[in-house]
Structure formats: C-alpha cells, structure tokens
Specification:
Radius of gyration: 20 Å
Helix content: 25-40%
Largest sheet: 8 strands, parallel, barrel
Number of domains: 1
CATH architecture: Alpha-Beta Barrel
Strand content: 15-25%
Shape: globular
Distance between the termini: 35 Å
CATH topology: TIM Barrel
C-alpha cells in the first residue's frame, strides 16, 4: 500500500526557505578556479573568438586588472596557460626561467599574493608540432618527456607556483615531477594531476586559445578513450601512488559518472575541468536566447559538485561568482 497522502515530498519544496534548509549541495565562489591565458606583448587584452568573455592577457596592467577582479569576486585560484614567443621541437620556453608563465607567476605573486597560483604543466602550447611531449618519429616518447616535465615543474615552482598540474597523460609524470621538485628543494609545492584526461572533442576552443592543435595526427595514443571508466580508476590510483596531492577529471559535464567513480575510490581532493567546449556551447545558445545562461551555468556547476568534485576549473568562474554573490536563490 502506498504511503500517500501521508508522505508528501513537495512539502519541503513549498517555500524558498524550506528549499534552502534541505538543500544537499552548494557551489560557492570559493570552489572555482579561473583559467588565464598569458601572452607576450604590452597592453594586450584580446578576446578569444570561440570563448566569449575570455581574453589573452599580457603580463602587465592587463593581468593586474584581471587579478584584481578575481580577488574582488572571491575566486581563490587561477590556472595559468602560456603562449610562447617562439615554438621549437622541445618546447623550451616551457621551462625557461624568463618564459611567459614564470613572468606571470612573479607578477601575480606581487599583485595578488593571496591568489593561489596553479600552472598547467604540458608541452603542447610550446612545441612546434603541438603534441604533449618529445617526439620519436611521429610518436610521443613518454620517458624522454618525463625529464622535460620535471624541468617545467621546477621552473614554475621557482617562479612562485603553489601547485603544478601535469596534463599530458604521460605514464609516470607525477612521480617524475615529484622527484624533481623534491630534489630542487620544492617539497612544499603540491601536484594537481590531470589523472583522468579523455581524448575529447570538447577541447576545440581551448586549442584556438592556446594555439595548441597538433600539427599532425591526434592525441588518442596518450589521452584516455572516452568509453572507459575502469581505466580512469586505474589512472587515478597510479597517480595517487606516485605522490599526487590532488586529482582531476577532464572534461566535466559528459563525465559526471567518472567524477563520481573516482570520488568513491579516492580520499584525495578531487577537481574537474569544465572545459572550453562546454563553456562555448552554453555561451552560443545563450546568445541566441535558447536558454537561461545563469540558471544553466549554476545548475551545471552544482551537478559537478554533486558528482563529487571539490573544486571546479571553469571559464564561467567570474560570471558564476557574481551570480552567486548578488542573487538568491542561487539556482
């Protein structure tokens, strides 16, 4: 026999106060990380066509203004992606002490010392071929790439990175970077591993923004195959064993089940990356009046939190922080 009419779940949805009181998950500005694309030049604040509202920023007043906005909005962290002056086979600006990311780190450290500085540790933006490591023929040489990633981590740490985030999906990358950091006296610098990074079609706008599309082939040989979940758990477990301090699943929206699966297996802090294609789709539909951007963004972000993400890297960070600060109810 049904418990109706004694059991009426709608009683707890009747007013905003009741709904807030029994709310199970929240998202706040403190859960968000803003990606930044830093470039050479002066007074550059150039909007990226496929990422409306996201800009290439030079390491001067343009970066200062962005840092000030993030601090004012209560966003606690940034992740830096750099566009080099020149590219070569090994991506040498990636580990140059005067490279674009070290310059940005020092600028942010002086301008906004309380802002957590995370750096993406990969090769694709810096190499002439656009792949995530050192090539042997047309294949990425995993083990030769590890030495480069260690050099990048040490360079970034020396310039003021709080966290380094290897994203190339090289086997052993966390252990190699941890060893290099510790040997160089940077044992306090944390590693946020892109432990579970799929070979996704959702990265298109990022590759325009970072000028990182591969010159030939694809990344299916090192990024993960989208149908696989057990493999994701293995990757996360390996990176945890190698010394990762935090883990990441990327992308987010199409992989909420993977976030949940990793969350249930690991006690480490877990992040997800709400990637460029996910952002661009929402922006495009909102510009045409096809959906309510604010509600869709906040619903999506809380879904990532509900799946188990402790923090979210998202291009929506500034807008979401404003909406969360200024409006009620949040969704």
């Amino acid at each position: 026999m049904s418990d109706f009419p004694v059991r009426r779940p709608r009683r707890l949805r009747r007013t905003a106060t009741l709904r807030d009181l029994v709310r199970e998950h929240d998202v706040s500005p403190g859960d968000l990380i803003q990606p930044l694309f830093v470039v050479h030049g002066q007074r550059v604040e150039r909007e990226i066509p496929s990422l409306p509202g996201v800009f290439h920023l030079s390491v001067d007043d343009a970066l200062d203004r962005e840092a000030d906005r993030l601090v004012e909005l209560g966003i606690p962290a940034v992740i830096l992606f750099g566009l080099p002056a020149t590219k070569d086979e090994t991506g040498s600006e990636n580990f140059a002490p005067d490279g674009i990311v070290p310059r940005a780190l020092r600028r942010l450290r002086d301008r906004a010392p309380g802002l957590l500085r995370i750096t993406d540790v990969c090769c694709c933006e810096y190499t002439s071929h656009g792949h995530c490591g050192i090539l042997r023929g047309e294949a990425v040489d995993n083990d030769r790439t590890l030495e480069v990633l260690g050099r990048v981590g040490v360079t970034h740490a020396g310039a003021g990175a709080d966290v380094v985030a290897p994203s190339g999906m090289m086997d052993g990358m966390v252990g190699a970077i941890r060893g290099a950091l510790d040997a160089a006296g940077h044992s306090e610098v944390a590693i946020l591993s892109y432990a579970v990074k799929y070979a996704s079609a959702f990265y298109g706008p990022f590759r325009e923004a970072a000028e990182s599309a591969p010159a030939f082939g694809d990344r299916l040989g090192y990024q993960m195959n989208p149908p696989n979940v057990r493999e994701a758990l293995r990757e996360a477990s390996l990176d945890e064993a190698e010394g990762a301090d935090m883990l990441m699943v990327k992308p987010a929206l199409a992989y909420l089940d993977v976030i949940r699966a990793v969350r249930e297996r690991s006690m480490l802090p877990l992040f997800t990356y709400n990637v460029s294609g996910e952002y661009a789709m929402v922006k495009a539909a909102a510009a045409r009046g096809w959906l309510d951007e604010r509600r869709v963004v906040l619903e999506s972000l809380v879904a990532m939190r509900r799946a188990g993400a402790d923090g979210i890297i998202t291009y929506h960070a500034k807008d979401a922080a404003r909406w969360l600060r200024d409006a009620h109810p949040p969704i």
